[in-house]
Amino acid sequence: MNNSDVPSQPQAVNPAANPPSSSLTNLRSRGVQGDTESSDEPQTPSAFTEAVESMHSAKLRKEITLGTIRPPQRLAPFSHAVGLEVGSSEDVDELIPTDSEGDAFGRLILLHDPGAEEAWEGKMRLVAYIQADMDSDVARDPLLPDVAWEWLTEGLEACNAGHTNLGGTVTSTSSVRFGEIGGPPRAYQLEMRASWTAEGLDLAPHVEAFAQVLSNVAGLPPEGVSQLGQ
């Protein structure tokens, strides 16, 4: 699994779409990739259904919204994806784009291959993508990519998210706008792409660790600590 397989096109997240258990019986329409439905297609594995349910049971801080998005096609026989964005907790009933408008957003994609691809060393692979606007002072720190990667590795460990085969990239970029184009004259962004094999079917700890990384890159204060002026 290459980190470049993470889709770069915008997806729409419905934060109110955390599916109840009854709707998970329809995972074929959301989580199983294929060009057409037919009686010859394999039934959705119970392990995959259980893993998807656990992703939506993750406990997240109120500033982060989570919803189902369309997973990429043809990466695995079964896939499911969630989008997370840092924003106001009052907007949970609106469709939130996971690209361009938010200061920080992420996508976490579950790939399931009952054949257990050798490269995965397991049947459940998670592919993560985060993009966040950064403060200029933070973005100019040459250690920023190293620190961001530590947030991921330490977060997975702190949340007891058992995993193997973790790999990825962290990219810090700056851009300058010229001419008749909107936006700030200079902008700085952090982009993280990572993937790892999950041990077990409870993926809630993985989602929680991923959300913590998103909180960190977005500059949110620790939970329970208010920023000055708020």
3D architecture notes:
- The structure is a single chain.
- The chain has 230 residues and is α+β, with helices and mostly antiparallel strands.
- The chain has one domain.
- The protein is 21% helix and 28% strand.
- It has five helices and eight strands, in the order E-H-H-E-E-E-E-E-H-H-E-E-H.
- The strands form two sheets. It has a six-stranded antiparallel sheet with strand order 2-3-5-6-8-7, covered by helices on one side. Strands 1-4 form a two-stranded antiparallel sheet.
- A hairpin with an 8-residue loop joins strand 2 (64-69) and strand 3 (78-86).
- The termini are far apart.
Helices and strands, with pairings:
Layout: E1 12-13, H1 27-31, H2 46-55, E2 64-69, E3 78-86, E4 96-97, E5 104-112, E6 124-133, H3 136-139, H4 144-158, E7 163-176, E8 186-198, H5 204-217
Antiparallel strand pairs: 1-4, 2-3, 3-5, 5-6, 6-8, 7-8
Helix pairs in contact: 4-5
In short:
With 230 residues, the protein is of the alpha+beta class.
Name the beta content range.
25-35%
> Low-confidence spans: pLDDT under 50, at least 5 residues?
7-26, 28-32, 34-39, 91-101
Structural class category: alpha+beta
Report Rg: 18 Å
Distance between the termini: 43 Å
**Tally of structural domains:** 1
Determine the oligomeric state from the structure.
single chain
How are strands sequenced across the largest beta sheet? 2-3-5-6-8-7
Number of helices: 5
The averaged pLDDT comes out at 80
Biggest sheet features = 6 strands, antiparallel
Organism: Corynebacterium endometrii
InterPro entries: DUF3000
Region (Disordered): 1-54
Protein name: DUF3000 domain-containing protein
